Amino acid sequence: MRATAQDFAELSQVVGGIPLAIKLAAAQLSLRPLKQIVQNIRQASMGTDKLYQYLYWQTWQALHDPTQLLLLSFLSADAEGEDIDFLRSMSSETDEQFYEALRELDQFSLLEVSGDAARPLYRLHRLTVTFLQTDILNRW
Amino acid sequence: MLPTSDQRTNTWLRWVDEHMQQLKWQLKQTVDLLGATQPEEVFRHGRSYLTLLNEAQHYPILTPSALNLIARLHPLPVRWGWGNLWETQLLFALKHTSAENTALRAEYYCGLADVYLPVGRFEEAIRQALIVRELTGVPLVVLARAVRTLFICFRSTGRYTLADELMDNSRDQFLGSLSADQVPLDTAQAWLIFNQSCLEQLREQGKIDEGLALLDQMIQLDQRQGSLNALLTADLVTQRSTLLWNRARYSESVADLTSAINYYQQGGARSMPSRSNPILVWFTGPWANWTWRTNPYLARFSTTAILLQNNWSPMILAIWG
Q: Rounded to an integer, what distance in angstroms lies between the CA atom of residue B197 and that of residue B100?
């Protein structure tokens, strides 16, 4: 998939240059062409809050069921991040499903990685957590 | 586009249920795994366990599973120094544990007292201990902990006469007049806890040799029982270390302190209590300028021990002086 610098400049402009929004929008390139992504965001014509809701909603709908479940499982893990072995032990999916779901979360830029090379820690962005709590679990 | 109202409702209906099922599975999985997990590993994931409990408490249907995990984790978070985080879990557990389950309720009240005591919330700690004393059917060892809490709180708030009266009035209940070899084994732990307070009285009165004799008895009895409570053993050995130091028996004092560190680690404690004031022992004699620096466990608690001087420290220093 190829996109020009101008394409990305347009994407950056339409999401207001917000790094997280750029990342989430760019992750949708595996689903639809860049021009369509940009056009959809423009048509939605929304403020920052709605922009995130829109981007997360688009991403959520694109995820497979095991990936959606894995994403939700992060709500019950340390907000500062957990290692892969612990996340695996807290998932009822098979190994194959778990690692495929993890790969998909990474593909859609939903994982934040911290820690060190010996023990990387995986967590969600605070806005991702808020989206799950409000839009998926209707908590507030 | 953003989801329609129907889409949102359908999403909630499905995923709230899926999430609850997942949490239920995770709660059970955590309880199952805890038994086979090394203490250091349990600590490493401790914040996730607390997050899981917080998340589960959004759904009343998960309360029994959450209570099960709380019972399994308690009192580790207190030993890790996370009392402020564990307090909410203990309050939740007390709210949902049936009144008939007095042993568990008493344990949680004592747990709350253990949360409040180190941070100087003495009146709240006293309240928990008094509740335990009012309950019927409480195991003797838990009652002994409640009395110990009251003893410490009274003395920490200057109510020395009340503390002495408490000891006099409780002596028979915990067979405090018997020597270690006369104590029935099923009463031994309560006897040991009660005598921790007696030791402090002896030390305060300057009766170092009597204190050492009592400690030797206590440690022997504790060892005969197989050191059921590693933190209690650690406290006893630490106390003996201090008294040995007072008698200039430095090498034995350091040996006891080294042993105490192992017991604290066995008990899941992340640091020695500030009241143990170990660095003064370690700095004595030709050993230690290097010893404590090379022991990561000791190095970790040393700062705490020095900085968090609480109400016991002046007393210990006075004895040492």
A: 30
